[in-house]
Predict the structure of DNA replication protein DnaC.
Amino acid sequence: MMVQGYHSEIMKIYEATRENERRALEARKNEIEKNHPEIMNLDRQIAKLSIEISLCFIKNKDTVEESVKSLKSKIKDLRARKYELLVANGYDTEYLNLHYKCAKCQDTGYIGIEKCRCYKQKQISLYYRNSDLSESVKENNFSTFKLDYYESHRIGDERYSPRKNMENILEKIQGDYLPNFKTQGDNLLFYGNSGTGKTFLSHCIAKELLDSGNLVVYRTSEDLMKNLKDIRFNNNHALEELLINCDLLIIDDLGAELTSDYYVTELFNFLNLKLLKRNKMIISTNLTLEQLTKCYTERLSSRLFGNFILFKLYSNDIRVKKNLSKISR
Ligand SMILES: [Zn+2]
């Protein structure tokens, strides 16, 4: 996806990175020049021979192959001596080379005409600069997820104990949803009482996907409502593009916003467009399925029930609520 404005901002970051690298290399060269001039001498000889190679192609066309071969072998020897000297003096062999943050694209953001993966990650951090998700995923992730907070005995008429239920959900998410994220189009709906870990779980998923270079956008339902208004009334195309085209949109706490007929219609159209484009979503809600139908009309809830994999989260244990809310906000 391409979002106007962000692109030039990202290219500026790459430029600055390359400039920093050039300066850092300059400083390293000055340091070596001062302390080990013999190494810099080798470096200069290598550079000179490299220029001679390119001159070969212009000058003696008959003997070009022979000359290039001999020059290359000289360079190889000099380079080996340079590396030896560097290492002997306690330096890394790469000390006098440019150090790239991303070797794949050499900090240009592109490999050929394809965007590098690091470009996408830069895009994500730009999107999240002013959002609370980058902070919350530091604490809310699978490594801090504690199954012990869920009771191991059955409650109510649920088929599984809360812990077994959560184990099943984690298995589906970690064993299937996340590894196959790129290739399959599953949408997830987490429903259940507040404090059962829905937001926490969606943050865990967000982090995994962000870390693997996916563009994840997190919105509470209330934020989404404001965003959809902004798109409609202020023609905020960049925002629309972001919400529609991101790899995963998480809509948290559906039902907590002040629902209006207007929003229900907008939301319905929005979900339809997302489903049509097969762009993935995770929705979480404290509402029961019956309440969802009541609040959001039959046609909207049938979109949810028909196109999302439903996961019910439950627990009576106050510890879940207490501990999860402690770390989630
Ligand atoms: Zn890169």
